[in-house]
Structure formats: structure tokens, C-alpha cells
Design goal:
single chain; mainly alpha; 16 helices; 4% strand; globular
């Protein structure tokens, strides 16, 4: 059986990367043009709740975010080319080989330095996003000092938790033979479950203040809803999201005995009690339909397939040669995977987005049975307006990238469910 040469691998890989990059860029441009073209046309379902000025602002915000996404896309392309075709990863590997003894230490140092370089390259975009784009539209509430404090804390936490995991994975790759990918996957799954367990209690409080929801009408309403939906949680908490942004949100965190419901303080400030109850009912819909568990299983299955694929690739020296790398060490293989994933993940992203949109409809349907559908519609309209979310979206862009149905689809679906019976299970 014939195998591909280094040139053959190079042609396929760089061709696929170029094709995916151009496709993503084209879809982003389509979205920008579509939103801007409809900036003065408010969809009929929102004409009474959202003004022309607010709709125009949402279009400007969406276009600005997508313009930044084009720069992010270009950076990912440059990182991939720099790491492979220009020999960046090979040069880093040679440098660490000269300064460290031991394959394990060299591998950890190589991957850590790749991650650090990517972080530093993305820093200007992060600063622009926070202090120019978000500032321009009135969402940013943090300072430069707080931004860098968060960044340093995240880096330190990532090093404290990630470097031991990285060392363990590389050790497995070096010592466990042909089935290393299976044992590495078990390590990865165990680590992620451990993070889910400790995150709400030990990690999240390092970045935000979480206070129990105070007694009153809101807490009583939410507790009644939780009892109605047979959902047990460690508590209801308010997070000081306003310290960094004016965007509002609500989410579940943790699992088992550490499971918490968290409301942004901005959400409480901007929504009425019945609207917050509807938002929580939607989140409970995800729990009822086991969406969170399903997503976790999907991610774990994808990571298993990815590690197996990496194991097969490591038996193809021509593939590494085609990427301008003369060795197929464990550290080198993982480094190349890190720089390639953002560029090559589009097919998986499409499938995940499709599943996510379906799940959002299911969660909305559950909420429409647990509370008044009109209350969820009202909450969504408030969130669309307050977060400057575009009410229009290019269909092809939505197909590839949107994790939620667009505003018009979602409201139309809820209106159709408005008279259905409450959930009784």
C-alpha cells in the first residue's frame, strides 16, 4: 500500500487549512454585510420593544465584533504557518533540547512556551476587544490593572493545574506503548471532572464574588420553580459580573453536591422577577433534557477520537516532514495539535452548533411549559436589547457558527408554544 510523501502531506494539510480559513473568512464577511444591510429594518416581532437607534447600535456592535474576528482568524493562520512552514515549533524544540536534559522536561517546556507565545500574540486583540470595542459600546467596566491581574492569575492557575497534567500526559505517551492515547484520555477525563467539582468552590471565587441570593420575592419565586422542576442545587448565588462588564447572564456551575445556580448582578438589575424566573426555567430545561451531560459526553468522545488520531499520525514521519518538522516526539506532536486545532476545528464546530441550536429550542419549550412563554420572550427581548445582540443574521453564517437560534426564530418558536400546558414531570 502506497503512503503519502512529505510533499503530498504538505499539499493536503496546507490546502485544507487554506480552504477552511477562506471559508471562515467568507462567512464572517457575509455576516457583516447581511447585518449592516438590515441595520435599518427592525423585524416586525421586535418593532414595539426595540427602537431604531437600539437596532442600529446592535448592528454596529455585531459588525465591529466580526471585524475583530477576521483579525483573530488571520492570527490563527499566521500562528499555524509560523509554527510549521517557518519552522517555529522546530526551532523552539531545538532550543529546549540544548538547555534541558530529559525528553519529558523538554516536552513540557516546549508545549508551555507554545501556549505562552500564542497568549502573548493574542494579547493585543484581547486588549482591543476589552478597552476599545467593548468600551466604545458601553459594556466594559474593568480597568487595565484589573485586566492584567486577571491575566496573571489565570496564567498562574493554568501553570499550577495544567503543567502537572501535561507532564502526566507526556509520561503516558512515552511509557504506555501503543495504547497511550487511551490512558491519556482517562487522565484528561479525570482532570476535567475534578475541575468541575472544585471550580465553583475554589476557582471561580478567585475572580468574582459570589454571594447567596438575598431573601425576598425573587428568591422565593426561584425556589418555588426549582421545587416544581425537582432540581436540587447547593444554593442560589449572585455574581458581581458588573465588575468587568455590563452584559448579563445566568448559568449552572459544578455538579453533584457542589452544583450552584449563578445569576449575574446585571441580570437582576435589568430584568423583572418573572423574567429572571423564565431565564432560570430555560436553564432548567437544559438540565431536564440532560444537555449538559450530553455535551460533556460529546466532548469526551471527540477528545478520545482526537488522541487516537494523533497516535496514528505519530506513525507517519512524512506527515511531520511535510509540516517542516524533523521529529515526531510527544511534545512536538501535542504542540502541532495545539496550533492546528483552532484552524481545523470548523467541521466539529458546525456539528456542535447544530446540536446546540436544537437544544436551545428544547430548553425554550421546557421553559414555556414551566412558566409563561411570554415572560421568556420578554426576558429575551430585554437581553437582546441590553447586550446589543443583532436581531438579524446571515443564514449561512448561522448554520456554521451560531450556538443559539437567531432572535426571530426563537421568539416565533416561543409564540407557537405560548398556550401549551406546563411541564408536570
Amino acid at each position: 500500500m502506497n503512503t503519502l510523501s512529505a510533499t503530498g502531506f504538505a499539499q493536503i494539510i496546507y490546502g485544507v487549512v487554506a480552504g477552511i480559513t477562506l471559508l471562515r473568512g467568507g462567512l464572517i464577511v457575509r455576516q457583516m454585510r447581511y447585518v449592516w444591510r438590515h441595520r435599518q429594518h427592525i423585524p416586525a416581532a421586535f418593532s414595539e420593544q426595540i427602537s431604531a437607534v437600539q437596532h442600529f447600535r446592535a448592528a454596529e456592535y455585531t459588525v465591529a465584533k466580526n471585524r475583530l474576528a477576521l483579525f483573530q482568524l488571520a492570527l490563527e493562520w499566521v500562528v499555524f504557518l509560523g509554527a510549521t512552514w517557518l519552522g517555529g515549533v522546530a526551532a523552539l524544540s531545538s532550543w529546549w533540547a540544548r538547555h534541558l536534559t530529559g525528553v519529558l522536561g523538554q516536552g513540557v517546556a516546549l508545549i508551555a512556551s507554545v501556549l505562552l507565545i500564542i497568549t502573548l500574540l493574542e494579547l493585543p486583540l484581547d486588549l482591543y476587544r476589552k478597552f476599545i470595542l467593548e468600551q466604545r459600546f458601553g459594556f466594559n467596566t474593568t480597568s487595565i490593572a484589573a485586566f492584567f491581574k486577571d491575566m496573571l492569575l489565570q496564567t498562574a492557575l493554568g501553570a499550577a493545574l495544567g503543567l502537572p497534567l501535561l507532564g502526566a500526559v507526556l509520561w503516558v505517551m512515552l511509557k504506555m506503548g501503543g495504547l497511550w492515547w487511551w490512558y491519556a484520555w482517562l487522565l484528561w477525563v479525570t482532570f476535567n471532572l475534578f475541575l468541575l467539582m472544585i471550580y465553583p468552590v475554589w476557582i471561580a471565587p478567585l475572580f468574582n464574588r459570589f454571594t447567596p441570593l438575598s431573601e425576598g420575592e425573587l428568591k422565593q419565586s426561584l425556589q418555588k420553580l426549582l421545587k416544581q422542576c425537582d432540581f436540587a442545587a447547593e444554593g442560589l448565588y449572585v455574581m458581581d459580573g458588573s465588575r468587568r462588564s455590563r452584559h448579563g447572564n445566568a448559568f449552572f456551575t459544578g455538579f453533584g453536591r457542589n452544583r450552584r445556580i449563578v445569576l449575574f448582578d446585571t441580570l437582576i438589575q435589568h430584568l423583572q422577577t418573572v423574567e429572571i424566573e423564565a431565564v432560570l426555567a430555560h436553564e432548567l430545561g437544559h438540565f431536564y433534557h440532560k444537555h449538559v451531560l450530553g455535551r460533556m459526553i460529546s466532548i469526551f468522545a471527540l477528545s478520545l477520537a482526537l488522541l487516537w488520531g494523533l497516535a496514528q499520525a505519530m506513525h507517519q514521519p512524512a506527515l511531520f516532514a511535510g509540516l517542516h518538522v524533523n521529529m515526531s516526539s510527544a511534545g512536538m506532536a501535542l504542540s502541532l495539535l495545539i496550533v492546528a486545532l483552532p484552524v481545523l476545528a470548523l467541521p466539529v464546530q458546525v456539528l456542535m452548533s447544530l446540536a446546540s441550536r436544537r437544544q436551545e429550542f428544547e430548553a425554550d419549550a421546557y421553559a414555556a411549559g414551566a412558566v409563561e412563554a411570554e415572560h421568556l420572550i420578554s426576558a429575551l427581548v430585554h437581553l437582546y436589547r441590553d447586550n446589543a445582540t443583532s436581531l438579524t443574521s446571515d443564514p449561512w453564517y448561522s448554520l456554521f457558527f451560531d450556538s443559539h437560534p437567531n432572535a426571530q426564530q426563537r421568539v416565533a418558536h416561543l409564540l407557537a408554544l405560548a398556550h401549551e400546558q406546563p411541564v408536570t414531570e
